[in-house]
Each structure stands twice: as C-alpha cells, then as structure tokens.
DNA sequence: ACGATCAATAATAGCGCTACGATTTTTTCG
DNA sequence: CGAAAAAATCGTAGCGCTATTATTGATCGT
C-alpha cells in the first residue's frame, strides 16, 4: 500500500542533455513546432521562429540526427567509397564533395575499398545501415552481391570517375580510353612514332588500364609502334624512374612516353635527367593527373588534367536535386571531360 | 457499428524492409536474442547463433544503425575533422584510421575545416548531432565555442598532429618545433651558417609556423644566420620555386634552406636546377613530409618523415580501448615522433 | 454576420533498436 | 536428487525525433 511496496522506479535510460522538448518548453510552443521550424522555417510564424531560435541558442541545443533519421527513415549522411583518399585524385573529389554537401548540412561517410570488390561490398553493407541519403561508388565494376544490395535501394547510387560501361543509376566522370587516345594523338602529332606506355598497378586499377588500352589502340591506328612497360605496385616517382630505364633498355629507339599518371611521369623525368636524355628533344613525356608538382618540374610536364573536383561538385548537385524531389531523368550520365595541358615535356 | 464507421486505418509510416523482428521470427527466438547476438555473439548459444546467422543470411538483413544508436545513446561513427584531405599528410592519417576503425565496424565521418576555426566549430556541432563514439580534431587550437561544445561531452576527444599545448582530452602527434630544431641542427652540422626558411601559408598553418619558429630558435642558438621568406598561399612546387629565387635575391650568401614542406622543397630543387645552383654543394635543401616524389627527385631530398599513418592507427587504438571500457589514464599524450631522412640534397 | 478557407500550431503514434531486469533453462555439487 | 548458481533467453519501456492528422485562430466573401 505504501510507497515502499511499489516496484523500484523503472530503470532509467541514458539520454541527451538537451532535447527538442526542452527547447519547445522554453520557447512556449509544442515540440512539433520546433521540429517544423528546424525543417521548414518558412512554415512557422515570425514570433514563434524568434522564440525558438532564442531557446536553441540559450540551451545550446544540438539536434539528434539519429532520432530524426529514424523517424524520417532516411539520414543526412552520404556515403562515399573510393579506392583510397591517399590518392590525390580521389582526395580532390572527396574534398570538393564534402564542401558542397556541407551547405546542405549533409555529412560524408568515407570508406576505402583499396581496389578490392570484396572490401567494397562490406563497405556498402555498412553504409546502407545508416540509411544514407545517397551512396557514391568509384568506378563501374562491382561484385554481384554489391549490385544486389544496391538494386533494392531507393536512394541515388552514383558511380564516379568512370564512364563507358553499364551503370547502376547515375555516373559522373569521363572516358579513360579517350584520355589514352588523346595522349597518343598528341604524341603522334608531335612527330613521335615509337611509343611506350608506362603503367603501374594496372591489374587492379581498371581506369589506368583503360587509358593504356585507348593509347595503344590510337597509336596502332595511326601506324605508330606502341609498347607497354608496367609494374605491379602503386604508382610512385621511383617506379616511374625504374620503368623509364626498363623501357629504354627494351625499346632503345623509343621517342614518346605516356604514363599512367604524373607520379610515374615525373619519375621518368627525373630518370631522364640522370641519364642525360634530352626531354623533349630525344624523348617526349606525357602524364596524367596534373598533380601539384607537374607544372613546376623540369621541363614542365605535359599532362592530362582530369576533373576531380567537378566530379565531386556534380555528385553533390545530383544528391541535392534528388533531396529536393527532382527526378534525375536525363542527367544520368555526366561527362566531366578532361583537358590536355601542353607543356614543355612534349 | 460496422467496419465502415471505424476511423480510417491509422496512418502508416515508412519503414525498413527487413527488421530485427523478422530475423527473430524466422530464427525462432526473440528480438532481444537477435540483438544480443549482433552485439555479443559469445553470449548466445551455438544453436541459436546458427539459426540467427542463417536467418540473417536468408533475409539479407541489414541492421539499422540509427535505431541502434538512438537506443544505445551512442553511434558506431567516429567524426574526424582535418584541414583538408587534399593535403597528403592528413589523407594518410584519415586513410590509416579508416582502415583500423573498419575492423571494429566503426565508420568515419569526415569534415574539412580549411584551417578555419569557425568552420571547425560548425563541423563539431554537426558531428555531435550523430552522437559519435569519438571525435578527432586536428591541432590544439580551437574556438572558445568549440571548446565549450566539447567540454560537456563524455566521448573521447582526440587532437592529432600537434603536441605541446593544452589539450582537451587526448593528443596524438609530435612537436613541430622539434622538427624545426632537428632541421636546423642538421644543416649546421653540415657546415651551413646562412640559413633561410621557406614557408607557405604560415599565417593559417600553425604547425608550419611552429616548425619555422623552432628552426629559427635553434639556428640562432647555434650562432647561425637564419631568415624567413614566405608566401601566403597553399604550398606548391611553383611557390617553392618562387620562394627560392626570392631568398637568393634577398640573401645571396644563403647556403642552407629549410622548407615548410616537401612541395616547397622540390620546387626549390627545380629552381636550383634551372638556375644552375649546385645542390648540395652550393646550397643544401631540407624538406618536411617525405612525400612520394621526395626520394626520387634530383638530388634525392633530405626531409623529415612525419608519422601520419601511425597517428591514425594510434587514434583508432585509443577509440577501441575506450569502447572496450578501458580508462584512458596515462596515455593521454602520445608522441609519435618523426625521423630525418638524410639524402643527397644536404 | 456566419460558415468557409487558410495559416499556424498541437497532439498522436510510432521509426527499429538496445538496456535492463525478469524469467526460464541448464549445469553444478553437497 | 534437489536446491543453488550459472547460462541463456525474453519482455518491457523507452531513445528523440518526424509525419500525419486534428485543432485552433485569423481572414474573408457575400
């Protein structure tokens, strides 16, 4: 009968210090109104808005996005999966995308696939458990299970940095074989006939392989000689130096070099310098990436400038449009192109 | 009285296709057991575990981390805020940390402060709304509001890439002034007496400034001449070339150059090559960062190799320990050190 | 002036999961 | 063999928020 006979007070849960109800109470409105204010400020009267703003300020209220996401069945997170952010290309895209998404209060969840489809699959699974607003993958090649996971999903799935294959949903990037073609045509236009492609990690990096293939195809079509010299490890200047030496050993009359990226290319340039090979007189060198050092080295490197930051911005735009209810009708393939920076190495 | 008089069926909510209850039903256990299995598999019997695993597999169940996080008042996300992932140093740390966290099924939420404390503050606010398992910031310098936000927080707050100031919670990194000191001592040991520090963006990059200050202090202490030549923009090889020319113009008898990072240093090296300045005979050059091209250039660059990936791994370890309930007692400062790579440019 | 119309606000019912105590089943051992 | 201890499982009550419907108050045309 008395208090002591009651069951012990029901167990308490952990909690957030300041909730929306606290704000509502202080602002003298209902929680619904606070929620509405946070999502659609224009639907709330000026007086209420002011009171709520003040209360939020005073209480230092931080909304709980998990509660919101749970109730709304979708979160303010965007998942992006790249091979590695150590790679300057993807770092560029990730950075520009994060900047663009921040304006819409969307957060970036980052994952690294390390060029491994199995890894990607696990990451996609983990990503989906956040009910993200969109999911961004690198490239068009994925495991069957990944495709299955993404098939039943209603959010935008955006594949970046590669065009030209069947895509899941939307694709933003450029054609890497066209890069190879552009480089080959450039070298041939410069009067080079004996070409070599220096490649790194091409068994894993599909896009490097595509550039190589396009290069070979265009060179052969123009009647030039074109060989490949490659190394299995990640591209670096050191490997570029090694590959250049190897190329000249195997093909002494080479007069034009294309590289799978600028790391390889500057490595080749460094090697030429040590070997007293005149660039571009004796040997023309073209890279890919237009990395930070490429314009400054000796001689300045002719290279392909991809559109890494544009890719990120376009992806963010697509996601924004989708959140605003626009149908992503025709813009399902966005070709962000690339440009050839002609400098003195060719 | 009849059905038509009833109120319309209560409004439906959006929902997830497969929930934990579905799994429980198929596995013939209660939802609690499924939840337990997912969080502490060892606490569930072998028979039940198998049934649940099978059900998860069959239904292709993906847990809803937002629901879980809401109930548990903490999510499986870790927020990391760096100036920019375009910067190879931070890319390294972010990448190694993501790899380490993935093993514990923790996700990385990434934000870019762009060296702006105001931006950082907003990002911290956004980060907190995910109730992350930990929050990682770059450097020890933050706005008062940021400090206030983080003061009331029970999760680990880890500050990386800087030691030597008052920290909020835990700090992992190294002393940048010691880097400057090490470089100065190295140059002096090589017989250099007229030193110049080439710096970029030092008004924003506190850590570059610290390296510079340490350098000047040590040089002066050793009785050497030491000047600073700087540029306000982000470090690049081009700026490095410009700064080198400027340094020689202002201080023609300079015989030793320290750079705020390797981009500047290779730019300086490129400029020396163009100006026919013998390195290291006439001029010694030392960088910071040991970037991918630093060992391959001409001459190979003497530089400081920081511990970016170790910083990421240690941060992940700290977070793991905290999740496992260990008190982060004494290990609140982790000095990951740096090493001087002596190559031929000095 | 009076219902109709519209804008602003409030009440309600979960979203899917976890923590906790309670309950059931199994094991241990005097 | 039976009671106590340990292991395994379950039931309950929210976590903090949003979406939907319901309600209130203000505006308006005739």
Main sheet of chain A, how many strands, which sense, barrel?
Answer: 6 strands, parallel
Helix content of chain A: 40-55%
Listing every helix as H and every strand as E from the N terminus to the C terminus, the arrangement of chain A reads HHHHEHEHEHEEHEHEHEHEEHEE
Radius of gyration of chain A: 27 Å
In total, how many beta strands of chain A? 12
Which structural category do the helix and sheet elements of chain A fall into? Answer: alpha/beta
Description of the molecule:
Two copies of one chain form a homodimer. Chain A has helices at 20-27, 31-39, 46-59, 65-72, 88-102, 117-128, 144-151, 176-189, 206-221, 237-250, 262-274, 308-323, and strands spanning 77-82, 107-112, 134-138, 157-160, 170-173, 194-200, 225-231, 256-259, 284-288, 302-305, 333-335, 339-341. With 346 residues, chain A is α/β, with parallel strands linked by helices. Chain A has a six-stranded parallel β-sheet, sandwiched between helices. In chain A, strands 7-6-8-9-10-12 form a six-stranded mixed β-sheet, with helices on both faces. The longest helix of chain A has 16 residues, at 206-221. The radius of gyration of chain A is 27 Å and the shape is elongated. Chains A and B meet through helix 4, helix 5, strand 2, helix 6 and helix 10 of A and helix 4, helix 5, strand 2, helix 6 and helix 10 of B. Chain A binds a DNA duplex (30 and 30 nucleotides) through residues 8, 10-11, 13-16, 19-21, 29-33, 35-36, 39, 43-45, 48, 63-73.
């Amino acid at each position: 009968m008395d208090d002591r006979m009651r069951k012990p007070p029901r167990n308490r849960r952990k909690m957030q210090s300041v909730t929306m109800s606290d704000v509502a109470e202080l602002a003298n409105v209902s929680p619904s109104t606070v929620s509405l204010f946070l999502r659609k400020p224009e639907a709330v009267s000026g007086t209420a808005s002011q009171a709520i703003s003040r209360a939020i300020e005073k209480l230092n209220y931080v909304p709980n996005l998990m509660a919101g996401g749970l109730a709304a069945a979708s979160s303010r997170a965007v998942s992006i999966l790249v091979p590695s952010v150590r790679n300057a290309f993807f770092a560029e895209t990730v950075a520009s995308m994060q900047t663009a998404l921040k304006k819409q209060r969307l957060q970036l969840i980052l994952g690294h696939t390390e060029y491994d489809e199995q890894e990607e699959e696990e990451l996609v699974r983990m990503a989906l458990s956040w009910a993200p607003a969109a999911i961004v993958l690198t490239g068009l090649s994925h495991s069957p299970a990944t495709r299955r996971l993404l098939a039943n999903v209603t959010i935008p799935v955006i594949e970046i940095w590669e065009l030209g294959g069947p895509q899941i949903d939307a694709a933003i990037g450029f054609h890497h074989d066209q890069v190879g073609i552009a480089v080959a045509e450039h070298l041939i236009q410069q009067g080079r006939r004996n070409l070599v492609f220096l490649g790194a990690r091409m068994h894993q990096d599909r896009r490097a392989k595509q550039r190589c293939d396009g290069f070979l195809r265009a060179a052969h079509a123009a009647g030039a000689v074109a060989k490949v010299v490659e190394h299995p490890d990640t591209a670096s200047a050191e490997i570029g130096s090694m590959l250049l030496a190897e190329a000249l050993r195997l093909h002494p009359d080479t007069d034009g070099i294309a590289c799978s990226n600028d790391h390889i290319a500057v490595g080749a340039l460094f090697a030429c310098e040590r070997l007293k090979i005149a660039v571009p007189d004796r040997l023309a060198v073209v890279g890919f990436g237009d990395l930070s050092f490429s314009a400054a080295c000796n001689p300045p490197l002719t290279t392909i400038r991809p559109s890494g930051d544009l890719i990120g911005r376009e992806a963010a735009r697509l996601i924004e449009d989708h959140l605003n209810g626009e149908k992503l009708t025709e813009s399902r393939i966005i070709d962000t192109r690339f440009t050839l920076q002609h400098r003195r190495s060719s």
